[in-house]
Design brief:
Radius of gyration: 21 Å
Number of strands: 22
CATH class of the largest domain: Alpha Beta
CATH topology of the largest domain: D-amino Acid Aminotransferase, Chain A, domain 1
Largest sheet: 8 strands, antiparallel
Distance between the termini: 52 Å
Strand order of the largest sheet: 13-12-9-10-11-14-21-19
């Protein structure tokens, strides 16, 4: 087992990893930018090293500085959390070359699943259902129009190196294709330095359901059931729950089996998720694989009593997994609380938290790094907290969440708490009737 782990991240996920390391008797090293010098992960780690100024590229994305911090503190492993360098194959490779264990997927596995076009081909070969689309990248406008006609409209252009909805365009008819083609490629080139795009059938009324998986260094893989991530805004998740209100036992088994096939196809090591689009007829299609821990991992932990960070560390240290598939025994919901103004287009609201009261009580978990007096920096993701509620039934979990949100007081900045309070009262959400298009018709009062 590792003696010292450096956490190459910040905020609530860094604090989350530190907690598990402490429980396992492993020393921790926090890295931080100058903007995060007063962050809780810096205070609670055994050691802390400043790695640069506020800009991510000069700190949390600065590989030489992070490796140097690991070497001067004699860390024998690095946990990347999510975001930043967590799915960077170059970083995984460099860690290995410096004799530091990267707690996550190998460079080969990250590359195999990181390029969405290659990942789709890998999944097809493994027998995992995929969305009908182009065979690899679309070569030119003529090729795109021909492929779209063959698939049938509506279709979607997607950036092969993309994420977060960038380089993505829906096309409803042939006349719209050329403008969408030019816009998607330009946006992809600007965001990722790669203008490659591929084409897929656009799945109408879809749900975004992911399967949590774990795989060890010995070729064994298992799944830990599903999470429904369909409540999204601009392809960014706002709320997740497990089990999905749309799921059936038959669908859960089929999707779980497919996720294990996906993991075994790349000999996956670590924990990760296989993400699917599920249409209104419960047909499901592989979308992508995330080779890292997810923001929403706590809801899975709560319904199956399973510490996913601990499992990551044990797998990286060479331990075997049980190979057992897990199924939810409770219901859990996670609301992401962002420092954003939901009444003003969800505009970011950085600044000083003047007053803070966090909810508690039975069935409530808070993952957060904020405190009264904490200054939310403007340089990073705006998420400041996650509220997780756990109960025997979905209705009870919603009621607990409604109560917990009413207790959560954050003053000095705007937050998305009012949005989530209204969401809990929405009739369609209460009935479990929602898709990834839910936010297009949801109106804040």
């Amino acid at each position: 087992m590792f003696k010292k782990i450096l956490i190459a991240n910040r905020g609530e996920i860094a604090l989350r990893i530190i907690r598990t390391c402490k429980e396992m008797g492993i020393n921790t090293v926090a890295v931080y930018s100058t903007a995060d010098k007063d962050s809780l992960h810096v205070k609670f780690a055994d050691e802390a090293v400043c790695i640069g100024p506020p800009a991510s590229r000069e700190s949390y994305l600065n590989i030489p500085n992070i490796i140097s911090a690991a070497e001067i503190t004699n860390a024998d492993a690095i946990h990347p959390g999510y975001g930043f360098l967590s799915e960077n194959s170059k970083f995984s490779d460099i860690c290995g070359k410096h004799g530091i264990k990267f707690i996550g997927a190998t460079p080969e596995q990250i590359d195999a699943m990181g390029d969405k076009s290659n990942a789709k081909d890998t999944m097809k070969a493994a027998g995992v259902p995929t969305i009908p689309g182009s065979d690899g990248l679309v070569l030119d406008l003529k090729d795109g129009l021909k492929t779209a006609k063959k698939i049938g409209y509506p279709v979607m252009l997607k950036a092969t190196a993309g994420g977060g909805g960038r380089g993505m365009r829906i096309i409803w008819k042939p006349e719209e294709f050329e403008d969408a083609w030019n816009a998607a490629r330009a946006e992809a080139a600007a965001a990722f330095g790669n203008d490659g795009v591929y084409l897929e059938k656009f799945v109408e009324e879809p749900r975004h359901i992911e399967i949590q998986i774990a795989g060890d260094q010995y070729g064994r893989a298992c799944h830990l059931s599903e999470r429904d991530c369909s409540i999204q805004r601009r392809h960014q998740k706002l709320l997740e729950e497990t089990p999905s209100p749309f799921m059936t036992d038959k669908l859960r088994k089929a999707m779980g089996d497919a996720a294990i096939k996906a993991a075994q196809a790349v000999k996956y090591e670590g924990v990760g998720t296989v993400e699917f689009l599920v249409d209104k007829h419960r047909n499901f299609y592989f979308m992508e694989m995330n080779t890292r821990i997810q923001v929403e991992h706590p809801i899975t932990e709560e319904v199956i009593n399973y510490d996913l960070i601990k499992e990551q560390i044990k797998i990286a240290a060479g331990e075997k997994i049980s190979g057992k598939n897990y199924f939810p025994e409770m219901h859990a919901i996670e609301c992401r609380i962002n420092a954003e103004d939901p009444y003003n287009g969800f505009r970011p609201s950085p600044g000083k938290i003047t007053t803070l009261h966090v909810p508690g009580g039975h069935g409530v978990r808070i993952d957060s790094h904020i405190y009264a007096g904490y200054v939310i920096p403007p340089y990073y993701d705006s998420m400041i907290s996650k509220i997780i509620t756990i109960a025997r039934t979905r209705d009870e979990a919603i009621n607990t969440m409604e109560r917990a949100l009413s207790e959560f007081v954050v003053e000095g900045v705007k937050t998305t708490i009012p949005f989530h309070q209204q969401l809990m009262q929405d009739k369609n959400f209460r009935k479990g009737n929602y898709t990834t298009k839910f936010m297009e018709s949801f109106k804040l009062k």
